Fold this sequence. Notes:
Radius of gyration: 13 Å
Low-confidence stretches: 110-114
Strand content: 25-35%
CATH class: Alpha Beta
Number of domains: 1
Order of helices and strands: EEHEHEHEH
Structural class: alpha/beta
CATH topology: Transcription Regulator spoIIAA
Mean pLDDT: 89
CATH architecture: 2-Layer Sandwich
Helix content: 25-40%
CATH superfamily: STAS domain
Shape: globular
Number of helices: 4
Amino acid sequence: MTGAGIEIRPGEDGVVRVALSGELDLAAAPEVERKLREHERDGAVLLLDLRGVKFMDSTGLRVILSADSRARRDDRKLVLVRGPEAVHRVFRLTLLDQRLEFVQDEATSSERGG
């Protein structure tokens, strides 16, 4: 990701926490995809924190949708921590805010049992 990175924290609670920052775009997508695939099976829930993402294009959206499809296929769960308004707007415009599960922060996710 341009000027930032990917922080992965596998949890003992069955939740793999992935915090993204910077730009989730064409340049960053291959590395993000690789890291997600590498760690997503470490837990029943993949919590993808978008709060640090400053920009996301359609390639970034594809990475997230692919992770969601793999999670559904494998009977796991993808939960997204809502990012800044500019990033969340992409989900609203594509109506994916109605398909994907969003929480405000990690604590909200824990309260919901995942």
